[in-house]
Fold these 2 entries.
Entry 1:
Amino acid sequence: MSESGLPEQGPGALLAVDHLRVLFPVKAGLIIDRTVSRVHAVDDVSLSIGTGETLGVVGESGCGKTTLIRALVRLIKATSGQIHFRDLDITAASRRQLLPVRREMQMVFQDPQASLNPRKRIRQILATPLALRGLPRAEIEAESRRLLDRVGLRPEHLGRFPHEFSGGQRQRIGIARALAMQPKLILLDEPVSALDVSIQAQVINLLDDLKEDLGLSYLFVAHDLSVVRHVSDRIAVMYLGKVMELSPAAELYTKPMHPYTQALLDAIPIPDPAENRKRVRTVVTGEVPSPIDPPDGCRFASRCRHASDICRTVEPPLTRYANGHLAACHHPQNVSAAELAAAVRSPLSPTSAGEQLPTLAA
Ligand SMILES: Nc1ncnc2c1ncn2[C@@H]1O[C@H](COP(=O)(O)OP(=O)(O)OP(=O)(O)O)[C@@H](O)[C@H]1O
Ligand code: SF4
Ligand SMILES: [Mg+2]
């Protein structure tokens, strides 16, 4: 494993992503298809997930969250970089080597309706992964019932089709299907975004209980920081294919360093309208740059009120502060002069990032 993957993300990582890039070709030409440019969907991302850890990944639409997950399970091929699951480099593994990893790494999708085959009853939907796992035929029915019970559904639900459930129940079936393979790591791609707020809380609580009881690890993708708050041990904030901040979860909410993280936090509504009115919010204006040939320097510069000259020319390195808190910003917020003096460049920084460490906010 490369040196950059682990040291500041904890030894013994279950999954280590090392300078991962996924670029999609943009084609043009009437007769001959030529690649004219590339969409930088995931652009030099390094992160890891420890055993029993939940890593939240947050960012607005199009920042590369789904592409990251799809590359991790090798549904799409990485352009460069490495992904290690335990000691196996997934990016270089053969189909045969990948088989056990595919079992241990399961996905839960945003839209449970679309991810469940509408023509199959739940009995069949669960029997497929159980048979793949090698469970004898005679045990499949009992195990299916146990799985449904585990996710809060009843045995009679086995005979129903997906459209005969509510959205929350369908997502529970998606989770049961993932559990059928006895995974170690579940990649959850916006698992509650399509659900009502009250149902969201129920599904998040279920995921939390399962993690505790089964010793699972999660990569939990959301576009909103309020969703991942209580389930994450650490949170990575992505913007236009890059990691902007990666921090222990509690600290991200009390001490956000990156202006983009601050803007995401300010976007979370407070239930009390009076409190809401008193808030001083960071309003993000300006256009999101195109992921096709993105700009030099900081990708957030066109929307950042703290941007200075260096921000538009030099990509900020991921800088490591106390408590394993990383931020890629030339002028981080909520940081004292002493904390800046003690900060170091993280080896997880993209290779295109500059060397210059941050200075106090402009
Ligand atoms: N197969 C593809 N070919 C070309 N571009 C793609 C492809 N898949 C995704 N993209 C582009 O890559 C970028 C990242 O897309 P992705 O779906 O990973 O974002 P996301 O963060 O999951 O967004 P959302 O929150 O809307 O689900 C987007 O600009 C998207 O248009
Ligand atoms: S590097 Fe500059 S432009 Fe980017 S977030 Fe920090 S202050 Fe803003
Ligand atoms: Mg997505």
Entry 2:
Amino acid sequence: MNQASASGTYRIGGDLPVVRLGYGTMQLTGEGVWGPPKDHDEAIRVLRRSVELGVTFFDTADSYGPTIAEELLAEALHPYADDVVIATKAGLTRTGPGVWIPVGRPEYLRQQAELSLRRLKLEAIDLFQLHRIDPKVPLEDQVGELAKLQQEGKIRHIGLSEVSVEQTKAAREIAPIATVQNLFNLAKRDAEPLLDYCTAEDIGFIPWFPLATGELSKPDGVLAQAARDHGASPSQLALAWLLHRSPVMLPIPGTSSVAHLEDNVAAAAIELTADELAALEALA
Ligand SMILES: NC(=O)c1ccc[n+]([C@@H]2O[C@H](COP(=O)([O-])OP(=O)(O)OC[C@H]3O[C@@H](n4cnc5c(N)ncnc54)[C@H](OP(=O)(O)O)[C@@H]3O)[C@@H](O)[C@H]2O)c1
């Protein structure tokens, strides 16, 4: 068994299998998620090593770089292995490092889907996520445009990002929603009601910042002692906790280094008892 596959498989939208422990590409861009990576060759190695380790689920967005993360994915992995699934997003514009402004006008979302198809060298995007709901545009127009793209065969499944249970329910009145992606990790569990809803409804839940942007990975952080006791790294415990939390959980840890990638992927095989899970929750 290759390493990532120990995390098990989840079928996005009921028909698109992914290995649950995935990879997020945001760390492959420059400072402030702006511009190219410091080390282009290491970025390519990270992506190719992910596939070697059995990762099949890659999260990206038009806005990472912008365009850089999608371009790196195509450069490293195209032509894609049959089981590689790329989830991209649109709906956040970038006007500078660290600046993210929602734009949900239908014609803009459609343009970004077309440009992602071109950059990723794909005929259809497996999972297309509305990066943020734009409060200035009716939800029907935003999700409705994604539904049109889906009917045209340009995207296979629709996802949402940073939403409430109520928003997810409202979007499901407009189109089938296969996944949601919200901030969630051992130390930040505000999205728990949404996770429980997704678990009950069999909607994929993609936790962003699964390592709390590295805070949970620190060798001297809150998970340090538990990691030593378990013969694991702090990152591995944070990811294993997520994987145990729900069968619909699809963590996408980000890293710019092959060494950290290998550390993270090994989390797939870590077993935790109910007592150990509770102890981790009490720590963070
Ligand atoms: N939907 C949204 O609005 C949204 C928002 C943010 C992020 N995301 C997605 O979520 C993904 C994950 O978030 P993220 O990458 O920002 O944060 P993360 O996965 O929580 O943490 C990444 C940070 O942890 C460090 N790290 C990773 N593995 C490590 C290890 N084994 N040991 C020590 N340090 C380690 C990385 O540094 P190194 O590079 O040095 O390893 C990096 O600084 C993103 O890539 C993106 O795809 C989505």
